[in-house]
Amino acid sequence: MCGIVGYVGDRQALPLLMEGLRRLEYRGYDSAGVAVIVDGALAVAKRKGKVRELESVLPAPGLPGTVGIAHTRWATHGEPSDANAHPHTDATGRIGVVHNGIIENAAELRRRLTADGVVFRSDTDTEVLAHLIARRTENSLVEAVRAALGQVKGAYGIAVIDAARPEAIVAARNGGPVVVGVGDGEMFVASDASALMGHARHVAHLDDGEIAEVRADGFSVLTLEGAETTKATQALEGEVAGFDKGDHSHFMQKEIAEQPEAVRRTLLGRLDHRFNTAHLGGIELAAREMLDIRRVKILGCGSAYYAGTLGAHLIETLARIPAHAEPASEFRYRNPVIEQDTLYIAVSQSGETFDTLAAIQEVKRKGGRVLGVINAVGSTIARECGRGVYLHAGPEVAVVSTKTWTSTAVAFALLALQLGRVRDMSAAHGARLLAALSALPDQIASIVAREAEVEPLSAILARADHAYFIGRSAGYAVAMEGALKLKEVSYLHAEAYPASELKHGPLALISPETPTLAIVPNDDLLAKNLSTIAEVRTRHGPVLAVTHEGVPLDGVEASFAVPKSEPELDPILLNIPLQLLAYQVARGLGRDIDQPRNLAKSVTVE
Ligand code: F6R
């Protein structure tokens, strides 16, 4: 949450900072600001609202200077306002600070500084840091920041500049991601390497407890205790095109349409037709180790948790290993039992979700082994896990997950196939799954091409205030994801329920005003699903269905049929129309689709 970008070099900093902010806006978008060192003084511009609001208050000639920092905010301490926007400065306006995270002892530090005569101009925890740094007397900025951080408790990723010492940006990390970008005679700092694509050639990821002095000609890293450390850099890979909407109206629409390509990349090089299995090299598990797995526990938040729920179903069904998904945000608070023969799997698109990271750390602290299923290469969770599966879905810019949900589900199908084939799955079953996996990209493309056929369903949902999404077994994972998508982008209340549970309570709420969207695959649970639909119809509840061709759906208001796959993979296809549905409803209601209210893409606070 909150995007940070910084530049030191010989180019004008402002255009680079603004480009970085536009790319990072998905991290938070309630206010934005920039500080550039102009003729030995800090020039600061900040504004409540989106980056385009900040653009509108920048002076026409820009802020001429070659060193600067910038920030896009997702408010924690202090409501979104011009005053609370970052960068924050000390009383003299010499020190500029941008911060992602929460300083836990801010109130106490604020009291002490106020008693010392400091006048605060914002309600933020971050401003405390600017004053603390300005009061330090160390010779260098990096030492002053290090000393100030010694007084601070909490989580942070920060970047600091000092108008009196313009040669460097100081960046530090304790829980909030920070990368240093290496260019040609210029250097960058960012909360997310994606801000630097097209500019930095290499990146170095700071670890927790590290502080970097970043100059135009290089950077050095210390621990917060003051010991020097060496940092390896990695080539920055990725395409700038991922940050462009192209012909699409929204990133969400673009990313839905990109799913065939995303799935192709997730599958690339991982289908082993010789042995009718999958090959995920990054999991680093020998066949014998796979045989020893007695249980699988999948941890993730939001959509990642729902994709993990489907993943657990796939693993249990195909590999016959008991598997279960749990919200990572809850996991560590119940003092979980960690077992040696359980395989823990952390799922995260961004690789930066604090709750997921904390869950992994809890597993590792107790001696458990964790694999990551992650999209963002080199992200904190990917590094913490050390091994796992990269999705290669490409950057996902819309705040809501679409293509990464699908790619995560596909990655779980590959893992389940690989685990299954070292156990009891037959070669013939493996071959069927390989064929079905290979067919997915074209099948997804065919669904996306029929977007207009989803409109009768979205028209009904757009008129409702509440809706149920129901499904059985793996269909319930699809229902959960579909309901979340609708809530997030349309702000309509949608509740997912296992279809079998409807009669145990929620049926009381079914009325002509409350539509139920049912996931109705043509599988061995079809008769049960049709009975549930009949129960809803009897209470005069409108029913919408996402289904397969040929399913007899009497009395259903509107339906959409997806192509048939192998039964285990059907849920992946059944989810695609729900993404289109959420998009259409939100668009019809005029919502801010790519940046829904109150949300941010990467939730790096607890
Ligand atoms: C839903 C959504 C969120 C994220 C969740 C986890 O559309 O985007 O629910 O799925 O915050 O994020 P990652 O996958 O980055 O850990």
Output the keywords:
606 residues, alpha/beta, 8-stranded antiparallel beta sheet, 7-stranded antiparallel beta sheet, 18 helices, 27 strands, 34% helix, 24% strand, globular, binds fructose -6-phosphate
- The DSSP helix count reads 18
Low-confidence stretches: none
Which range does the strand content fall in? 15-25%
- Average pLDDT score: 94
Major β-sheet annotation: 8 strands, antiparallel
Rounded radius of gyration (Å): 25 Å
Backbone structural class: alpha/beta
Shape: globular
Distance between the termini: 11 Å
Count the E strands: 27
Ligand inventory: fructose -6-phosphate
What strand order characterises the main sheet?
A: 3-2-4-1-10-9-11-15
Oligomer: single chain
The percent range for helix content is 25-40%
